[in-house]
Amino acid sequence: MVHSRNLATINLLSLLGLDSVYKELKKDGFKNLSMDLSLALGSFGISPLEYSGFYSMFANYGVRTEPMLVKKIINRQGVEKVYETKTQTMTSPKQSYLMIDMMKEVVKRGTGRNAQVPGIEIAGKTGTTNSSVDAWFCGFSPDIEVITWFGNDNNSPLKKGETGGRSAAPAFKYFMTKYVELHPETTREFKIPEGVESRKIDGTTEFFTDVSPFPKTNNVKQLKEDSGLMF
Fold first, then answer.
1. CB neighbours of 23 closer than 8 A, spacing ≥ 6?
2. Tag placement on the chain: N or C end, fewer CB within 10 Å?
3. CA distance 174 to 155
4. Can you tell me the distance from the alpha carbon of 176 to that of 183, in angstroms, rounded to the nearest whole number?
5. Superfamily assignment of 47-194 in CATH?
6. In 131-231, where does DSSP find H-type helix?
7. Which helix (H) or strand (E) holds 63?
8. Where in the chain is the domain with CATH 3.40.710.10?
9. Are 106 and 9 in contact (CB under 8 A)?
10. Are 123 and 107 in contact (CB under 8 A)?
């Protein structure tokens, strides 16, 4: 994930089983899904607004929030019509934190480095479609989620070499920097939920839970062999 290496994601899909992942995504509301290994790369159309809803499950520690354009309407008589936010629990806080930690690394040392904001933890993921038609960055702090997208209305390619890390991540950084300046009370660090443990593997702190337990060995080569990885 850190360096957007697609083979690792394809490998994970193979281990989990294409059919089971496809059914789970359909159940969760994803549309236009492909029934092949390209599913691991996000090979289906989705809008930034839709994406924000699915990404919220990580930012909210397992609770997906349906995005809303209107929170309430007040008429000339002062009567309010309030629209309630719809939520859905997708996973536990401890399992969500494992994904948060991985996405923090994307920003710290991976393809999302250009999204770093001094003094605040950011988690996120870059995205670039074939021929650079779309360039994404989906990111969040402990308090706010932001998605930046670069693309043309007619789906023509962007300038050669444009990527989510090069185009969308800096735009995210600009917005988030201004947001933190306007809201200095913003939470700066992600809280580690109960049930999350850590251990050093190859000099790096890795997090685990009872659902995603510590591996039996710290040897990376042995881990790959034991897991039967394809790549």
1. none
2. C
3. 25
4. 10
5. DD-peptidase/beta-lactamase superfamily (3.40.710.10)
6. 169-182, 220-227
7. strand 63-65
8. 47-194
9. no
10. yes
- Top pLDDT among 43 and 7 is at 7
Angle between helices 48-59 and 93-109 (to 10 degrees): 110
Q: Which amino acid is at 181?
A: E
What residue type is 113 in one-letter code? R
Q: Copy the structure tokens of residue 30.
A: 């994803």
Residue 4 pLDDT: 81
Residue-wise pLDDT for 86-120, tens only, equals: 999 999 999 999 999 999 999 999 999 999 999 99
Q: What's the pTM?
A: 0.85
Q: Dig out the tokens for 150 from the structure.
A: 């670069």
Whole-angstrom CA distances from 16 to 58, 99, 187 are 20, 17, 35
Q: Per residue in 10-61, pLDDT tens?
A: 888 988 999 999 999 898 888 888 888 888 887 777 888 888 998 899 999 9
